[in-house]
Amino acid sequence: MAFNALLFMQSWFYLDVLLEIVMNKIYRLKWNRSRNCWSVCSELGSRVKGKKSRAVLISAISLYSSLVFADDVIVNQDKTIDFGKENQSIDYRITVTDNANLVINATDTSRPRLTLASGGGLDITGGKVTINGPLNFLLKGTGFLNVSNAGSELYADDLYESNSGMRHDQGYFNVSNGGKIHVKGTSRLTYTQGNVSGEGSQVNAGTFFMGVYGGYGGNQFLSVNNGGEVNAREHISLGYYDQRSDTTLVVSDGGKISAPKISLSTNSELALGAQEGSAAKAAGIIDAEKIEFVWASTSDKKITLNHTDKDATISADIVSGSEGLGYINALNGTTYLTGDNSAFSGKVKIEQNGALGITQNIGTAEINNRGKLHLKADDSMTFANKISGNGTISIDSGTVALIGNNYAFSGYIDVASGAVAVISEDKNIGRADLDVDGKLQINANKDWVFDNDLQGRGIVEINMGNHEFSFDEFAYTDWFQGSLAFQNTTFNLEKNAEFLQRGGITAGQGSQVTVGKGAHSISTLGFSGGTVDFGALTAGAQMTEGTVNVSKTLDLRGEGVIQVSDSDVVRSVSRDIDSALSLTEVDDGNSAIKLVDAQGAEVLGDAGNLQLQDKNGQILSSSAQRDIQQNGQKAAVGTYDYRLTSGVNNDGLYIGYGLTQLDLHATDSDALVLSSNGKSENAADLSAKITGSGDLAFSSQKGQTVSLSNKDNDYTGVTDLRSGTLLLNNDNVLGNTHELRLAAETELDMNGHSQTVGTLNGSADSLLSLNGGSLTVTNGGTSTGSLTGSGELNIQGGTLDIAGDNSNLTANVNIANSANVLVSHAQGLGSANVENNGTLALNNSAEKRAAASVNYTLGGNLTNNGTLMTGMSGQQAGNVLVVKGNYHGNNGQLVMNTVLNGDDSVTDKLVVEGDTSGTTAVTVNNAGGTGAKTLNGIELIHVDGKSEGEFVQAGRIVAGAYDYTLARGQGANSGNWYLTSGSDSPELQPEPDPMPNPEPNPNPEPNPNPTPTPGPDLNVDNDLRPEAGSYIANLAAANTMFTTRLHERLGNTYYTDMVTGEQKQTTMWMRHEGGHNKWRDGSGQLKTQSNRYVLQLGGDVAQWSQNGSDSWHVGVMAGYGNSDSKTISSRTGYRAKASVNGYSTGLYATWYADDESRNGAYLDSWAQYSWFDNTVKGDDLQSESYKSKGFTASLEAGYKHKLAEFNGSQGTRNEWYVQPQAQVT
Known about the structure:
The structure is a single chain. By secondary structure, this protein is mostly beta strands. The chain has a domain at 1047-1224: Lipocalin (Beta Barrel), CATH 2.40.128. The protein is built from 4 helices and 101 strands. Strand 90 and strand 91 (977-980) form a beta hairpin. The protein is flat and about 145 Å long.
């Protein structure tokens, strides 16, 4: 029934009439200010004021008129209403507050519409509204939906804020300050200006859609900001294929949208920070697996990056669909796209204030870069996109190959330190200016004329496939301070020297550098297997026609070839050897012809690995050998020849004649000794090659240094540093030495170089400084001195005992799977980062095993791939390893010692001040504990940081009658790991806050009946070992196996004599017995079952009577028995097996009062000696065997009394007896 009524009166007249309609609906006549008239309306139209007890007739929302005007409504108590089938329109505010629950049932499948028209709205500020069923929810004009404040929530099956095909003005949608909307299915927002803002504010839906069906309606705009969230379980969809309005979703200021998929269709914009045309704001979070551009339009759907952040990230895969294309516009801020964007085929625009970072790819997109494009690879990236514009391409990390056609790019390409850019054609870098602080690789198979501007301090690595590289006359390189590293490339220095005034050259493998005529100045010159041709020599002038002046660094440590044209001039160099010079000086003697002038520059190495050739590639040689005598013994053989050297003054590159090789012969105390003799630099450096099987010793005054610089050294003897300092000036200068010895007060400085030795033996007060280098030890040793510095310490085999204080060690220590490292000093590992693939043991050297516990400190990180031992069997418990950094277990093992008793047990401990990760198996050795109940547990592993690592018990941990279990703590202690003999993880109680000093009470009242303070719970349910049941079973079997009674051997045995055929009687007897038992212990944890078998054999050896009627019997007996048992613990699931095998011998004696009838009294006694072999084997434990033995005796007494006799039906005689009996064993 519908009811409409209007009553016009003057505004001062007040009428309040209640009309009851036939259908029991209650209406009220109210003055409507907006229409200046009286309206008949439902009770809903009344504004409820005052007390909560005044009910609001919520059911009146189901209006029976199609249009009703009313005042605002406050809903402040629970109510359920039925919406009905017809559309409803509200132009007044409905406020849900005071924790009220409003339920609207809209179950009609026709999907009726509730319109919040201008002046109307649903305002949920402190309650919950639940909409059941399909209901179109339309905002019109200034109509609004507001859900604000924590606890305010709107629930709906579907929320369709739309009316397809109709034109409406926009309303306003707001979720703020912790309000929430929950939609089971789809939430559609159209014609709406919306806002989701504030921590805890959420819109949660299956699918979240913004757009307009049918092409009608105004624009849609939704801002998600300040911690607000829009979460879709399936999909966020923006725009519709034929819509004419704009759809914009902005995520800013820490707001968040999340969905597996986000799609952008016609006229849609997903903006991070702010929409295009607005001022940039802080970025929010876009959390999606895929962002897809759909439909065929290209310029009307876009991702806008317009924010103020420096490192915003979108991790979704961005795809264009089959025809979706799309735009990515970076307007402000820096955004990194970290997903797989290989299916994106749209366009990218980077404006002047914008920056876009790519970590994988950006599909086939064309990029207009007026800002900054960051290419950041974890490992390698191939970037084939076409780039235009005048911005910057920054190669931030990894190796990035630019292979696209970038002729239209005229900006800058920056290669950061540590990064590598690779190009193969000049179009890859277009007309860009290059700033190389990392490495630029140019790989081509043709001549290359480089015409780009170049600067930076990095390396340009050039491989032309045996073609020529040169600079264009218009190239600008004045600020290039790096190096051209040539491989398989020809280069003419004479033609290009002007481009390297601040740069340099490294002649790499396969390269040919021609110096040309004249003197050419460059910054650096180095060698790495290439050839430098200095041309013709001038006779008498002691110089070549082409020379090089180096202003910064001349590196002569590498290998390579020096070519000259006139060998006769070389042969004119004096070959006289000054016997007064030391071996470290004679290698630089007769430095006659200068090729490179490096006065004022740093000269590294002494050219011992450079080869001198003529123009035809033939080695220039005129060698001679001499024995080197020392203390009357031939210690070595020296070879002298033409060679290259840095000169006596270490100021260039020279051709001379001097020592080129030392062949070591003598060993031990007769070994060749090198000494600085008070000299320094070149005069104390040996650049000749050292070979042979003899030893090499060093003996200089304290503070004086001898250095080696030839990387081709291959001697195999001992390197014996007896005094002074040994400096490594190149890799592998100690050759293949099988032992490195450092005496007290000596120092070995690795100087950043790499070296492999067999055994390392460092005495106390010696110093081995890695100094950025890498030392590899293949056969262990003992380091009692100090290890210091950064770099790498690699232990590849054997056992290395580190017994010195290495507090200043900051290197990476790598222990191979075949190596063992024993650390017996608290600071033995210093601040190293340790990667353990073998065995790392603490306090385990033989002389330390009985020592007190030690607190060890590892200042860096520890990665355990092998075995970490804080204690070994036989070693005292109590060692503590403190890891200052992070700990990562890569399925490694941790072995610890613990005195397995109660909570206060002494134990090894691992303390990690950083974070833990990965998985580690933990083995615990019992260091003398007898087992006890635990309450809180024994703390083994303590973690101060994030405790994400898992420590898994490996094998049984047992002591006494108890099984211990390794478990993570609970509550505040959940980051730590404990041993417990109970069933639950420990939950330690926090220490109480200290109480303030109490007021003194000088006269306390006596309490005659104080309440007793409860003690500890002694009934904690602990885990018992199944072996306890096995020992009990063995003991019970041994004690009872040979126990026998008189009746078990009673009776006469008859047999037939084989000779006479007579029937005879014997007193021999045999007993067989088997049995099966099951039992549980008192705690109910242990269940045991056993099987036994006994064989006994005996017979009388004497019989007599004292009165003619009684009889005495004395006999001997022997036996064999065995018992097998199994015990299982219902708590831990562990099992134990036991067995006992035994033998016995003994005597027995029996007296019968009446020998004939055996009635009346009798006495029986026996005594036996038994011995047993016992075994117990528990799960994951070694079998335990033990022996037992003992005497047993028995006294038995009884009385046999005849009760009655009778004849049976067949005439048989039957007798009834009773025989009381007692036995003590």
